[in-house]
Design a protein that fits this description.
This protein is α+β, with helices and mostly antiparallel strands. The chain has two domains: 151 residues, no CATH class; 106 residues, no CATH class. It is 54% helix and 8% strand. The chain is built from nine helices and five strands. Strands 1-2-3-5-4 form a five-stranded mixed sheet. Helix 1 packs across helix 2 and helix 7 packs parallel to helix 9. The protein is globular, with a radius of gyration of 20 Å.
C-alpha cells in the first residue's frame, strides 16, 4: 500500500552518509508520478494528492522507473513481515508496527533513515533518489533491513544516552574550571556531539549484522545487497566518524552470511 502525505508510505506498518550523485530531476519525477499513479488508491490519502508535473523522458528511462517502483512495492511487502517478526522476537514492549515511507522531496540525495513518530511508531524511510539508485531488489532489501535493525537494536535511544553522558561530562568539566554559563552551555553541546559519535561505528556494524540476518530470512541475498557499500565514497576509519570503512562493513556482511550458510545462526534468529 502506498499513500501520499509529506511522504509516500506502504505497508501496515541511518544508512545515512555520502551517496553517489543524485539521478536526474526528470527521472525522479517519473518515479514519483508512477508511484502515485500505481499505488495511491490503496489507502486513503492523508493530504490532497498533488499533481506530478509532466515531463518528457525516454522510453528506456520510463521502463527503468517502472522497474524501480515495482521493486519498491515487492521488497516492502516481503520485508515487512520479516522485520516485524524479528522485532517482536528480540524486544520487549517495543512498538513493532512499522511505517515504511518514501520521502517525496525531489531535491534530496539518495538516503535511508529510521526514526519514530510522535506516538512512538517506528518509521523506516527512503528518498526517491535512493529508489532510483539501488540496482536490484537485494540492495533495496538490505538498506531497509539495515534501518530496521537500528530500531530493533535500540540505537536511537542509545545514541541519545551517549549524547547526554557526553554533555554532562563536558559541562561539569568546564564548570569546574569556573566557566560562565554560556561557555558551559557550549561545552555541553560539544560534549553531546562527541558522545553521540563515540559508539556510532559500532552501532552501524551491529545494524549491518542484524540487517544481514533479516535480509537473508526474507529471501534476499545480503552479499548482493551489500554491493551498494562498494559504490559509496569510503568514509575511512576516522576518529569520531559516524560510519566505519566500507570494506569493514562488507566484511561483517560476508562473515554473517557464512555463519548463516553454515547453520551457526539459525534461520529466523
Amino acid at each position: 500500500m502506498l499513500l501520499r502525505a509529506k511522504s509516500l508510505s506502504w505497508g501496515k506498518s541511518s544508512f545515512r552518509g555520502a551517496f553517489p550523485p543524485m539521478p536526474s530531476f526528470r527521472f525522479l519525477l517519473v518515479i514519483l508520478s508512477l508511484a502515485v499513479t500505481l499505488l495511491s488508491g490503496c489507502v486513503p490519502t492523508m493530504t490532497p494528492m498533488q499533481r506530478v508535473p509532466e515531463t518528457e523522458i525516454s522510453p528506456e528511462d520510463r521502463q527503468r522507473a517502472e522497474v524501480a517502483v515495482a521493486r519498491l512495492v515487492d521488497v516492502g511487502e516481503r520485508m515487512e513481515p520479516q522485520i516485524e517478526q524479528e522485532c517482536r522476537k528480540r524486544t520487549r514492549k517495543l512498538n513493532c508496527d512499522y511505517l515504511f515511507v518514501v520521502d517525496d522531496r525531489l531535491d534530496l540525495d539518495a538516503n535511508a533513515f529510521q526514526t519514530t513518530d510522535r506516538s512512538g511508531r517506528p518509521v523506516i524511510g527512503v528518498t526517491l533518489a535512493m529508489i532510483a539508485e539501488v540496482r536490484n531488489a537485494d540492495e533495496l532489501a538490505f538498506v531497509i533491513g539495515h534501518e530496521a535493525a537500528h530500531h530493533i537494536a535500540g540505537h536511537i535511544a542509545q545514541r541519545e544516552r551517549d549524547a547526554a553522558v557526553g554533555a554532562a561530562y563536558m559541562g561539569r568539566a568546564v564548570q569546574a574550571q569556573g566557566a560562565d554559563p554560556l561557555t558551559v552551555q557550549r561545552a555541553r553541546r560539544i560534549g553531546a556531539e562527541i558522545g553521540s559519535r563515540l559508539y556510532s561505528k559500532d552501532y552501524e556494524l551491529e545494524a549491518d549484522r542484524l540487517g544481514t540476518i533479516i535480509t537473508w530470512d526474507a529471501g534476499y541475498d545480503p552479499l548482493k545487497g551489500a554491493q551498494f557499500f562498494l559504490r559509496l565514497p569510503d568514509p575511512g576509519d576516522k576518529m569520531l566518524g559516524t560510519h566505519p570503512p566500507n570494506q569493514l562493513r562488507f566484511d561483517v556482511v560476508r562473515d554473517t552470511v557464512a555463519q548463516l550458510r553454515a547453520g551457526k545462526i539459525p534461520a529466523g534468529s
